[in-house]
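Lab manual, section 2.4: Encoding a predicted structure.

Procedure: take the sequence of the chain (331 residues), apply the prediction step described in section 2.3, and record the output as structure tokens. A sample record is shown.
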Amino acid sequence: MQQRRLGRQGLEVSAIGLGTMGMTGVAGMADMYGPADDAEGVATIQRALDIGVTFFDTAEVYGPYHNEELLGRALAGRRHEAIIASKFGFKFSPELRIAGVDSSPDNVRRSLDGVLRRLGTDYLDLWYQHRLDRSVPIEETVGVMAEQVRAGKVRYLGLSEVGASTLRRAHAVHPISAMQSEYSLWERNIEGAVIDTCRELGIGIVPYSPLGRGFLTGTVPSAEELPGKDYRRSDPRFQADNYAHNAQLLANVQAVAVRHGASAAQIALAWLLHRGDDIVPIPGTKRRRYVEANASAVSVKLTADDMAELDSIRTAAGPRYTERSLATIDR
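Recorded output:
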């Protein structure tokens, strides 16, 4: 597996990582992508390691808590082979549902102690603020995060779904190595100011949902055909008219895939990899066969004509989140 560097501080990871969210779902939505199986999740993580994937993404809110525990079990005895990223910043109700955001100093410290315990490790490689807490200055939050770096509990810092101004303010307190955001052929919102700022400051870019929550695999039906608990039933991009429009975008990806003898998913990942060597996508899966297929995207070589054709595909029809969820995004 090829290696890439995130940021200028020395964080080196596999060119494609593994997002583990689907293995447990998030708080209040355990079956958001269908039922998961812990044993297959562990096997998928271990298979990823076997084929050279070293970069694993989890979060406190995944489960909550259970995802970090699952990843810790899967990496037992192999911690030294892995680069682990986790995220903090949500608060939970007594029923363990999301109840807002909290990046207060006390919660920052509490969150890290919890993730280290659940992962069974004494340090975290990359630690993100999951969502901006507008009630706490980013300088204060990053200042407390930086304390954990100096204490040896964290190696590198990151932010998720923040805008250019927040990146600059945070980076002035402590170097930020990675910025995580949804980014794919059908979701291009960080192009322009956010990516330009990352590159100016030397911050790596980590796209989550690089396969459009499965849409770019060509295997996900429209919202009304999905199981009742599937998160994508409420995703505007999977709704009737939007889905039909987006299917035309997918057809363009599939045409490139046919020329390369590859899958649409591999083309979508290869497009991201060709957009810059500071980009490391983290496609999520809970099954071994998909982690192998995704990892092989590093071998797909797109031509200039391929890239021009794919670049012409613009953002999908429909917003990427509901209005309530979009309010948590800092742009």
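Check your result against the sample. The domain at 3-213+276-299 is CATH 3.20.20.100 (TIM Barrel).
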